[in-house]
Amino acid sequence: MNVSRSHDALSQGADYETLAARFRPIFTEIGREAAERERSRTLPHDAIAALRQAGFGAVRIPVRDGGAGASIAQLAQLLIELAAADSNLPQALRGHFAFVEDWLNVPAGADQRAWFDRFVSGQLVGNAWTEAGDVALGQINTKVARRDGGFVLNGSKYYSTGSLYADWIDVFAQREEDGSDVIVAVATDQPGVLREDDWDGFGQTTTGSGTTLFRDAAVEGRNIIDFSRRFKYQTAFYQLFHVATLAGIAEAARRDAATLVRSRKRIYSHGNAPRVSDDAQIQQVIGEIASWAYGAKAVALQTGEAAQRAYEARFEGDDEAERAANVEAEIASAQAQIVASEFALRAATHLFDALGASAIRAGHALDRHWRNARAVSSHNPLVYKAKIVGDWTINGTEPPFLWQIGNGQERGSN
């Protein structure tokens, strides 16, 4: 069902250069220490704090409500710039912006106003959806239950990205009383929420994607939301963050490769010029990397435009048009993931062909670009994305808008 909303209550775009100018000095400072954070696995608390203070988490909030009124495509463009500085940060903020998006899609009221005020004040939201441990596909062990006139949450989650930096956590759970699926917003400043920094992936190492435990964590009844209310283009929106992150990684590979070639003095006797920067073969390598970065950014922004159309269709009073826009956004995000993953991984590998053996020194930390791109590309298997696009292209089969992960049937079982 569509929701009526006046024009000034929607976030349809701002002047991008003015908006980006607020954050570029912060991005520059974040990028200055990114390689060292990667080498030492230092969590980016200071970087998150700077973004928080500058209002980055509220850029999608309408201007009349204290935000910047940015469109989703503009958010994607900001995320690309941020990812070029440190690709861990867009992923760490992914759950926050999805929670913001959900509140942008609901009817105006006191609850929406309360959350808008929290976002504008700098409060951030983490994510905890994936069940930890040995669970079957679709099994949800995290439960919210009535207790002593209130509600408590119990369970364990993994891949709880961004939760180490958050004031709230957006938790996928079930009501104990009837098994219905809900979203639970849980405040982190309580003893019942235990956040562990145990993410051990070889890439995206500081996203805060480890385990979160809930042990009789207190929850307000108004912060328990039926999952059926969740905004309909959520999967495409979540995947847009991966696409933007990949585009930022490709841009970082372009930047670092060009900078090192420009400053390189040593040449090979069998090269093509007295300076590496004038070597036609090296110029070709850098040109290819720059083109892949350009392509990744282009598909990310195009995907953001499709998601924005889905957002705006929510308020236009045409259910069929809204569904079509949601399908478009989902297919766009799937196609973009395939393309951006290919381009980012190529760029992150090919940059070493423009440089000498010194490029593999740990101090440069250039390997982080490939490791981070590979980690982002592995979150949602690309083979399934390609299948979804192919089935849509051939047969017109609508994509799945939601999916889960868990144990399948063992061999020999029914």
Count of discrete structural domains: 3
What's the CATH superfamily of the largest domain, by name?
Butyryl-CoA Dehydrogenase, subunit A, domain 3
Gyration radius from CA atoms, angstroms? 22 Å
Structural class, judged by helices and strands?
Answer: alpha+beta
Keywords: Flavoprotein, Oxidoreductase
Family: Belongs to the HpaH/HsaA monooxygenase family.
Protein name: Acyl-CoA dehydrogenase family protein
Domain Acyl-CoA dehydrogenase/oxidase N-terminal: 28-102
Short description:
The protein folds into 3 domains: 7-124, Acyl-CoA dehydrogenase/oxidase, N-terminal domain (Butyryl-Coa Dehydrogenase, subunit A, domain 1); 130-229, Butyryl-CoA Dehydrogenase, subunit A, domain 2, CATH 2.40.110.10; 234-395, Butyryl-CoA Dehydrogenase, subunit A, domain 3 (Up-down Bundle). The protein is 47% helix and 12% strand. The protein is built from 12 helices and 9 strands.
